[in-house]
Amino acid sequence: MDPKSASGQIVAEWDFGVYSVKSFDADRGNGATNRFNVLKCPDWVNVLAIVPSGQFVFVRQFRYALARETLELPGGIVEDGASPLESAQEELLEETGYAGGEWFILGNYLANAGLQNNYVHSFFCRNPSPKLGVVPEDGTTVQLLSTEEVRQALYGGELCQAFALASVLLASRQGLVTMS
Questions:
Q1: DSSP label of 155
Q2: Is the dihedral of CA 64, 125, 167, 46 positive or negative?
């Protein structure tokens, strides 16, 4: 398929606030036209953080799409005008009350190239500390986990969000954490 045809005839667009959907007809390269839908999303960030005690910082949040609580890395949307690092630092503070520390980029990867146009920016933060007077955002529960507890959550399926798995793998491959 010719990359230029990916911007074919727009059929409809819907704006849902945090994301929009663009539906368009495009030539597949053989003269046939197919309809495609793209979720247009802002980039996302997540943070794999380890406090001075060696524990990992996770959050539990209720997710309506699953109708249950999940174990996740702190993270969220890259806000307009903010860099991915600034957004990651803000998300860690808002969701956990932790700030500061030493920051490293783990990597950037596509969220879901088949349907979405956005990237996920994963960061590692070593030695953040609780910021006095900051209460984690409503709806999140901070959970500090040992390496063994993270390993159990990974292999037991409790930590099952792809972005968290990618972050742990990237941090491990870069020698920032040991999971074996």
A1: H
A2: positive
Is the pTM higher than 0.85? The answer reads yes
Amino acid letter, residue 82: A
Assign a CATH topology to domain 44-173. Nucleoside Triphosphate Pyrophosphohydrolase (3.90.79)
Q: Domain locations in the chain?
A: 3-40, 44-173
**Tens digit of pLDDT for each residue in 158-174?**
999 999 999 999 999 99
**CA proximity to 101, closest of 135, 57, 164, 145:** 57
172 CB neighbour count, 10 Å cutoff: 15
Distance CA 133, CA 113 (A): 40
Rounded to whole angstroms, the Cα distance separating 148 from 118 reads 32
Q: How many other β-carbons are positioned within 10 Å of the β-carbon of residue 123?
A: 27
Q: Which residues contact 19 (CB under 8 A, 6 or more apart)?
A: 39, 40, 41, 42
